[in-house]
Amino acid sequence: MVLDSAAGVELLLDVGLDRRITGSTEVEISAGGHRWSRRRVLLSRHSPGPVEVDRAIASAVKSHYDGVYFVVSRAGSTLTEIARRDPRVAYAAVDQGIVSFLGTTYRVGDRGADGAVPPARVSWTRLAILRLFALRAQDPLRQTAIASRIGVSHVAVGKQLPALQGLIERTPAGWRTSDRAACWDQFLDGYSGPRGLASYFAATGDLAGQLARVERMVGAQPGQQMIVSGDFAADFYAPWRRPTRIIAYVSAQPLLDQHGFAVVPAADATVEMRLPRDPTIQAMSVRVLGSGGEARCYSDPLIAAWDLSHSRGGDVAPAVAELRDRVMRDDLWS
Q1: pLDDT value for 34
Q2: How far is CA 270 from CA 55, 87, 208, 211, in A?
Q3: Dihedral of CA 149/150/151/157: which sign?
Q4: Which candidate, 55, 147, 253, 323, has a CA 20 to 30 Å from the CA of 83?
Q5: In whole angstroms, how large is the CA radius of gyration of the chain?
C-alpha cells in the first residue's frame, strides 16, 4: 500500500480525535470541546529532523496555521521528542497506529512491520497526457491543444512529451498515438491515485438518492463543483455493475454531517468526498445534462476506472474491463 496523506488524516478518527478537512493539504483537529487547531498536512517519506521541522513550522505559521501535521510511516525519536515539547508539531505514524497531538500520544494498537510505502514523486501532467491519448480517437493534437484539454501550461506539456516517446509520436499535424490501449494500461499501472485528503460518510437510503442529496448540498454552495467518479461514472460510460459507493471530487469539503450523514471510517462509508492533489481531474471532467435539465459532472473514464479498480466486489475486474473495451470501441469522451 502506498502511504498518502489521507491515511494519516483517517488515523485521527481511529484514535478518537475529531477532524474537519478544509483543503487538500489542510485539516482542523480537535481533542474534544469546541477548540479546533488548523494544521498544514505534510506527507514525508521519512521521519523529519530538526531542520525540516523548524522550516515546516515557520512556513505554516507564516501562512496563519496553528501548526503542522506530519504523516509518516514510522516516527523517529527526533520527531517524537519535538512533538512532545512543541504543541505546534503533530504527526501520524501510520504503520505504528500512533497520532501525536498537542503533546499527547494516541494509539490504536501496533501495526505490522510491513506497512505503507512512501509515495514517489508524481508527474500529473505526464499521466494526464496518457489519459488524453487513451481516451481520444480523433486527429493529432498540437502541444497547446493538449495543454488546454488537460488544464496545464504548454511548457509543462513540452517537458513531458519526450518521456512518452514510443507511445506518443510527433507528426507534421501534431502529436498522436497508434496504441490507445497501451496508453490506458500504462496510466493504470503508473497512477497511484489523486492523493489529497478525503472525508467518509454514511447515510440511510439507496445510493442514487444519497448522491442526489449530496449534489443538492454541494450545489447550494457558491463556486463549489462536484465531480462524480468511481461506480457512478463507470455506470454512466459503460453500465455493468450496480454502484456500491459514491466517490466524488470537490474543491471544498461539504459539511454532510450537518445534513443527515454520519462521519464514519473509510471501510464503512457509502460516500467518499476527496479534495484531489491531481490538478487535471477537473479539467478533464465531462459535464452532462440530464433529461430534466439538471447537470452532473463526471470524471473522465480513466479516473473512473482507477477508482472503480480500487473498489470492493468480485465484479470489479470485469466492470473495469468492460469500461476499457467500450472506450477503445466507442467515442465515450471528448
Answers
A1: 63
A2: 39, 35, 11, 10
A3: negative
A4: 253
A5: 21
Q: How far apart are CA 210 and CA 262, in angstroms?
A: 12
Beta carbons of 294 and 288 less than 8 angstroms apart = no
Contact (CB, 8 A) for 188 and 258: no
Count how many residues are written for the chain: 334
pLDDT digits (tens, 9 = 90+) for 14-40: 888 888 888 888 999 988 766 899 999
Q: What angle do CA 1, 252, 126 make, to 5 degrees?
A: 50
CA distance 263 to 257: 6
Nearest-angstrom CA–CA distance, 182 and 324: 11
Residue with cell 480517437: 137
Q: Which amino acid is at 136?
A: R
Is the separation of the CB atoms in 157 and 129 below 8 Å? yes
Spell out the domains of the chain, with CATH numbers in brackets. 5-107 (no CATH), 124-190 (1.10.10.10), 197-329 (3.30.460)
Is pLDDT above 90 for 132?
yes
Minimal CA–CA distance to 5: which of 68, 104, 102, 92? 92
Angle 314-206-255 from CA coordinates, rounded to 5°: 105
State which amino acid sits at residue 261: F
Angle in degrees, CA 19, 90, 87, rounded to 5: 105
Convert the pLDDT of each residue in 287-318 to its tens digit. 998 766 778 999 999 999 999 998 888 889 99
- Helix 180-190 and helix 316-329, axial crossing angle in degrees, nearest 10: 140
Please name the residue that has the C-alpha cell 462524480.
228
Give the position of cell 497508434: 178
pLDDT tens per residue across span 74-121:
999 999 999 999 999 999 999 999 999 999 999 885 444 444 555 556
Compute the distance between CA of residue 152 and CA of residue 158 in angstroms, rounded to an integer. 11
